[in-house]
Amino acid sequence: MGFSYTVAAVIMLSSTLIFFGIVYTSYVQSNENIANANQKLIKNIYDLENTHVSVISYYYNSSSSLFIVNLTNNGSQVFNMSLANVLVNGTLVKFNASSEFLFPLQTVSVKFKEPAGTYSLEIVMPDGFEIFRQVVS
After folding, report:
1. Is the pLDDT of residue 1 over 70?
2. pLDDT at 56 over 70
3. N-term to C-term CA, the chain
4. Which end of the chain has fewer surrounding CB within 10 Å, N or C?
5. Mean pLDDT, the chain, whole residue set
6. Residue-wise burial string across 24-43, b where 16 or more C-beta atoms lie within 10 A, e elsewhere
């Protein structure tokens, strides 16, 4: 009878150790995920605070039906223009940029084809910074 109590105690102790090992591993993993998410949030906030892209001019070329929008980067971020989006009246349009990257203190031209008219233009940079402008041809 004494042996069965010893075996039961060993089984209970080992299962308790296994249980707490699993719980501890899950706890460490979840804390690591939270720390990584906080670092990404801090980086995104930093990027947005250091982004300042503005529309300096735009014009409409009636012979080719092209809107040409000139953007300047007065912030400290570098943008890959192929990752940016141009929306005209809320619809995503294809565009061509005069340069692949938009470096600080550089100007880039964004060209897209639309018929003449008045449009709400939104340019979304890769870090989420948005530029709104009403354009009239």
Report:
1. no
2. yes
3. 96
4. N
5. 90
6. eeeeeeeeeeeeeeeeeeee
Under DSSP, the state recorded for 81 is G
Specify the 3-state DSSP secondary structure of 88: strand
Name which of 135, 59, 70 is nearest 102 in CA terms: 70
What pTM was computed for the model? 0.70
Q: In what order do the strands lie in the sheet with 66-73?
A: 53-61, 66-73, 107-113, 96-97
Which of 5-9, 33-37, 112-116, 131-135 is the least confident region?
5-9
Q: Is the dihedral of CA 99, 103, 106, 107 positive or negative?
A: positive
User: If 0-12 CB within 10 Å is exposed, 13-18 middle and 19+ buried, where does residue 95 land?
Assistant: buried
Give the C-alpha separation, 87 to 132, whole Å. 10
